[in-house]
Design goal:
0% strand; mainly alpha; globular
Length: 141
């Protein structure tokens, strides 16, 4: 929600009324009623809505930087063995994405396209800059 509010204010420069959605609120999206949808429901909604705005793309347009939607973090120091095992498990998952896609069909959106073009799994310097900018914008408001 914070990313949406930043984009509404700083990128699109609009101030719509924001209300908390209730169960199945996406069924009411039409006309001048919009909604923030995440996860699988967002992929399904893409084929139902006339206008679809990708918040990650809007962030990139506004800042020139990628947006980090998720990251693995810990609130305590991890052992070297844990980090090695964790990284190996992630590498195994990435290596097996074709099998994962095959075993988890999703009719509403091409998961091959999703995993190959929409998600980036490396936290590089540009993503770190985007994350730092987002966090600084959160604290300024």
């Amino acid at each position: 929600m914070a990313l949406l509010q930043i984009l509404l204010n700083d990128h699109w420069k609009i101030s719509p009324e924001i209300i908390t959605g209730k169960e199945n609120y996406e069924l009411g999206i039409s006309g001048t009623t919009a909604g923030l949808i995440i996860g699988d429901r967002a992929l399904t909604q893409r084929s139902k809505s006339t206008f679809v705005f990708d918040l990650g793309l809007a962030w990139k347009e506004m800042t020139g930087l990628p947006f980090v939607f998720a990251a693995w973090v810990a609130n305590k120091e991890m052992t070297a063995d844990f980090i090695a095992d964790f990284n190996a498990a992630n590498a195994l998952g990435l290596k097996n994405l074709p099998i994962i896609k095959e075993q988890n069909p999703f009719d509403d959106f091409d998961l091959g396209q999703y995993y190959d073009q929409y998600i980036s799994f490396r936290l590089d310097e540009e993503k770190k800059k985007g994350l730092a900018l987002f966090l600084s914008m959160l604290t300024k408001g």
